[in-house]
Write a structure and sequence with these properties.
The structure is a single chain. This protein is α/β, with parallel strands linked by helices and about 375 residues long. Helices cover about 30% and strands about 20% of the residues. The protein folds into three domains: about 110 residues, Rossmann fold (3-Layer(aba) Sandwich), CATH 3.40.50.720; about 190 residues, 3-Layer(aba) Sandwich (Rossmann fold); about 80 residues, 2-Layer Sandwich (Alpha-Beta Plaits), CATH 3.30.70. The protein contains 13 helices and 16 strands. It has a seven-stranded parallel β-sheet with strand order 8-7-6-9-10-11-12, sandwiched between helices. A five-stranded parallel β-sheet has the order 2-1-3-4-5. Helix 1 links the parallel strand 1 and strand 2. About 40% of the residues are buried. The model has no long low-confidence stretch (mean pLDDT about 95).
Amino acid sequence: MYNILTLNKIAEIGTDNLPKEHYSVSDKCENPDAIMLRSFNMHETNLPQNLKAVARAGAGTNNIPIDKCSEKGVVVFNTPGANANAVKELVLASLFLSCRKIYQGINWAQTLKGEGDKVPALVEKGKAQFAGPEIAGKKLGVIGLGAIGGMVANACKALGMEVLGCDPFISVDGAWGLSRGVHKAANYDEIYAQCDYITVHVPYNEQTKGMFNAEVFGKVKKGLKLLNFSRGELVDNSAVKEALANGSLSCYVTDFPNEELLGTEGVIAIPHLGASTYEAEDNCAVMAAIQLKDYLEYGNIKNSVNFPDCNLPFTGRKRFCILHKNVPGVVGPITTAVANAKLNIDNMINKSKTAYACTMIDVDQKETGNAVDEILKVDGVVSVRVI
């Protein structure tokens, strides 16, 4: 029986993938095998001794202590792409909001309450102040062409925009999924100089922190409309206010409101609604549960942020799932330890990702003897499970 602790409400359509005869899912489990969560902040949480995995029903993992999990051999999963369509749709809505002054017009119309029969005439007289450009024929720059960025690029091309994309780390699947009409920009500077709109879809890390700053706003096409549905920290708020004041920016749409930007003319602050659709929540919950189940039952890893994707068809009677540092001289001693336990290796795989790696070994015996103890003695090994 696997015990799963939920730190946020997880849609039942997801947890239904964890059969009740093998899984106990609760928000009150003391020493769980795994944790499922959405936005709960785990940074002050002590990791339970029995913890093997954390599954984030969503893409961002800033609320999870990744380094601490890696050191203890806890695999952290996320669900990239599960909420991509929800975010894409809000980006499209925000494109129109950024230029057509729709919400400003709606707010103004409410002020006409009490004018009686004069309302239609007042509307016709006052509507000109809310005019704005169409997006068709305008240039959109998409920075980051992952699941969300790729969908945004394709949709905007279909809406008649000229789309430039840039992603130095684009995956093969991401490239295959792009419309042929999306142009490849040589670098970010090309997008800054040419585009009327820019939407950013990159992860937040030390390299991307404040990537939209005063220097960048000095390069952009005057009157740029910037959309940020990735992370608030990608954009320097002080630089945004200065760029709005000098005309470099005409509008900044962000899904991450904060005190500094609220009430600023030209800022449209949306209350983090990117993935707030019923469908996205369901998709994330299902994806997180399936990935968690595959890891707990078979050791297979998919969409982990701290360990490599690693998948091996189960061919033996027992399986060793070994998480270790990605350093030379680890795999040899592991296989030697297995051999010294008089176990015959039926199948194995080794994959690495930055600082960590995963080795899975299937053996054709049911009894594993002292193999686990010997493997744990190998320098660099973090954890060992037998399935």
